[in-house]
Amino acid sequence: MSDPSSVILLLLMGIPLLFGSVFVFFSQTTLRRLFFLMLTIQSVGLLSLFLLGDHDFATPLVFFNEVITFSISTIPTILFILCLAGLWLLAWQHRLPLAFFPARVHAIFISVALSAGCLAFYSGQFMMRYIALEVVGLLVALTAIVSFANLIPFGVIFLILRLGDLSMLAAILILYQPARTLDINTMITQAALMPLNSQAWVLAGFLFAVIVKVALFPMGGWLQIARENKQFITIWISAILMPAMGYYLLYRIVPIIQYRAAFQIIIMALASALLLAIMLVSYLRVVPFTPFMVVNSVLSAMAILLAAYLAPGLLALYLLFILSGRIGLLYLERVQVSLPPLGSALLLLALHTAFLLAGRQQLPMPAIIAWMSMTVLASAWLFVMGQRDLTTKTLQEVFVQPEERMPLTLFTYKIAGWLYHQLEMGIFHDGLVKVRDGFIQAADWIYTNIEGGIENTWTKLGSGLIRISKSALRREEDVSNKANEGIHQALRTINKQEIQTAAKEIRWDLIWIPVVLIVILVYMMTG
Amino acid sequence: MNTYAYLLSGITLLPVLGVIILLLWKKATKTQAAFLGIISETCALIIPIILLSELRAGRSVVFSLPWIPNMGVSFSLELNWLSLVFLITEVLVTLAAMIYSLGDKDGEKRSHYYYALLLLFSLGMSGTTLADDVFLFYIFWELMLIASCILIISWGHGENRLRVALKYFIITHIGSLMVLVCLILLYVNFGTASLSALTLQAATLPVQTQVFMIIFFLIGFCIKMAIFPVHLWLPDAHTVAPMPVTIILAAAMLSMGTYGVLRFPVALFSLEAMQPFALWMMIAGLISEVYGALMALAEKDIKRIIAYSSVSQMGYILFGLGSLTHDGMVGSIMHVIYHAIVKALLFMVVGILLAAARERNIDKIGGLAKKMPVITVCAAIGILGISGMPPLGIFNSEWMIFAGGFDSGFPIVLTVITLLGSILTVIYSLRFFGKIFFGDTKPEKVDTNISKTLLISTVAVTVFLIIEGLTPGPLLAWSELGLVSILGGLP
User: Fold this and answer.
1) Which residues between 96 and 155 in chain A have a beta carbon less than 8 angstroms from any beta carbon of chain B?
2) How far apart are CA B468 and CA B99, in angstroms?
3) Which residue range(s) make up the domain with A482?
4) Does the pLDDT of residue A70 top 80, yes or no?
5) Which of A71, B81, B156, B476 sits CB 3.0–4.6 Å from B240 for a disulfide?
6) Is residue A252 part of a domain?
């Protein structure tokens, strides 16, 4: 534990906590300097870790009879460096107007999140990572409560994230049974020997956790709420750190997905379905998602699709790419700059094609087809979405009245118009209308039942539970009242009998009975 | 008998001495009576800590005096790892409740009786955990019931306290009688009342007798644990009792049921004999967990909300015990302790809220976060604790219980439902916390001038909860040793 990597890592975990605890005592100006100092130290530390290379080490600390270990490797280090770069960007953005700089409590949240981040990325045990995820989830929710001074956003965020956490906990505990250790590598290795049923539960648990953490449709509602808290850089915790942890979790569970061919096919199908659903929902504007949310959802679904087949190295590269994209999009959104639609679509297409070419050896034909078709669809969708005014215009208005559009290149515009007129209005008019109606219905269903309706579901669930509870409570009160009545009745009877007994004269002629009983008792006790 | 044995007897004799002094010292003020109780409980806490060295050396401490020699009944006490865990929990909770009671308005009248009864209540629980004789066990078992009943009748709130106390007495006494039947059966079959001797012999009983006794023991102790549907006594008793008594009832006395399950059916009979009941225990635990949480969600009285949450939490414990696995049972023992700390904290918070707002209806209390920031933080930590948020303690015990569930060999879905059912705990906790501290409805008058004793004891329990959660090592080791001490280890 005396080697430089381990010392640096422990410092990386401890220093933010130290800063967090002293933030309380300083003025806003000093706080700002301290905050940047903390970021600098973290950045230098992480870069040093990156340069020092992979290293595993054990600490003297013990968690449930197991030595707490850490595993420093390149992928999490780069992910964490990227996260920190995002924090730098957001912090820098706030450098001028001091009032916008994080309030004390937010600075404390960020410092705790930095420590938890170290734990999540480097811990050698699943349970430690789970704890880190829970802590970060709580921080996201606490940020909401501090910012909105209202418990509802806190409650919704906390509940959704908790669902993800619990599913992850279930997966960890199922894995724990054969492995009898919390060590990640052993657990993942042992998972190969588990029966199909248990493996499926494990995978489902982890995958659901990933979907929640990366805020993928239909479990992204928490991020939508957390992002409404716009003036604080604590958005970094919810929009960058938490998804990065989710991506890393996905990266770690790749071996489990690839243990069985059936899992690969199911995951691919699931990712494709999620991707289509989010594109459809946002295309038909069923849900008022921001472009940031939708693009992130699409990219995250693509990552899951890739995770089914791609080697971990290439997948890691893809995850780094989408995390960078996420940070870039967040920054651009906050400085209110939008990318040209055609440019973004082509960039997406080019990058995904490059990934396909790089990984073509590892991907079977169905995966290549799925990947490519999803890429084309996503690029086309990005292009079309970029053309649209997301707030007021209908799809028809966008393409029929080009002059009302925002400044665009005429070429792009004509292509969009041609696509619309020739394909949608011309060749497939009738059929497409029907298909569209079907899509709308499907999207409506998805909205009502899944993402859009998640709040309704909570409300309905809550009301339902309260209704059931009230009815049960009434019954319980009835039983309780009956019991009370019974007791009362018994008391009255006893009282009556007592009065009757008291009124009777003592039968002295029968006094020998208790005397004999006492004698027998004394005889029994003394032998 | 060595010095340690005599020291062990002090755990039961010191409270008796305290009771005698209090009964004779009729002019004692509340503070004087409370201090006497606190001193007595502190001694009862120090003694097991001194005796730890003996346990660490692998020797259990035994104190034995003949009582009714011809019947083979003796005043035998034994301190082993299992009893140590429960004893320390019980004494700590009573101590915290007594300190808290100094700032509480209950017990102002006839204070010497009040604290004498509190000491007797504690003595009943200490004796229950230490007794190595089945009849002695039963006497202590009933002592805690009688003492708590008198406390509710004499110092309880509301006109219906007599009825509530009677209901509490009758329902729990039915459980006690079921336990008594089993104890007599054991005595009749083996001619000894020594629990240690019975532990070695009970497994030789005919299967039908074992089955009968396991059922009776389980129902009897489940009544004490307030498992659905035999929990009816709990919400009323918790609501009516004075706050220190409520704290002891919820945080310490419920755990006696768990101790009973471990000490009797689990320790006496083979695991094979218990196996047919495992699934039913787990299902009953699951139902209790969900039902208690639903009730807490529907309830409006803030004291009853926390009371119902006990029903839910006891469900987790029964679930873990039912798994009959190392992880599940160790997790259950740990859960008893963590639950005791969290529940003590939450009831302390409720007591302060009741004193400040003079309102019990959750719909009529709100927006207290700004007025009572320290209590808000304590409540938040308590709420996060009961929701199983790491690194607070309940997380540690819950994951072990769930791990036990997955390891039990029963369908995974059962444990998955239990695990997901814990989301209900989050919901009712958030409702409780949100409405009281962030709700829009403001009570007419809030007295924020909280007694420092109440505040200090609440903050102290909060800090203790955090420390306990961060350092689960010793508790885990003690719980594992406790299980080994009764079973010789589990796979």
Assistant:
1) 127, 130-131, 134-135, 138, 145, 149-152, 154-155
2) 20
3) 455-526
4) yes
5) B156
6) no
| Structural domains counted in chain A | 2
Average pLDDT over residues B345-349: 94
Domain assignment present for A346? no
Indicate the residue among A208, A236, A264 that finishes a domain.
Answer: A236
Interval B84-121: pLDDT, tens: 999 999 999 999 999 999 888 777 788 889 999 999 99
Return the SS3 of A484: helix
Contact B438 A149 (CB under 8 A): yes
Which uninterrupted H or E stretch holds A66? strand A66-72
Full-model pTM? 0.81
The reply to whether B407 touches chain A by the CB within 8 Å rule is yes
Token output for A213: 């953490």
Q: With 70 as the cut, is the pLDDT of residue B423 above it?
A: yes
- The token duo for A181 is 């250790």
Do B423 and A174 lie within an 8 Å CB cutoff? no
Q: What is the pLDDT of residue B363?
A: 85
- A342 in a structural domain: no
B390-413 tens-digit pLDDT: 888 899 999 999 999 999 989 999
Quick check: is A493 in a domain? Answer: yes
Sequence-ordered list of residues with C-beta below 8 angstroms from that of A219, at least 6 positions apart, any chain? A160, A163, A164, A208, A211, A212, A451, A454
Q: Which residues in chain A have their CB less than 8 angstroms from residue B407's CB?
A: 177
CA–CA dist A500, B103 (Å, integer): 47
pLDDT value of residue A496: 87
Strand partners, B79: B61
Final residue of a domain: which of A207, A236, A265?
Answer: A236
Closest residue of chain A to B369, computed from CA coordinates: A149
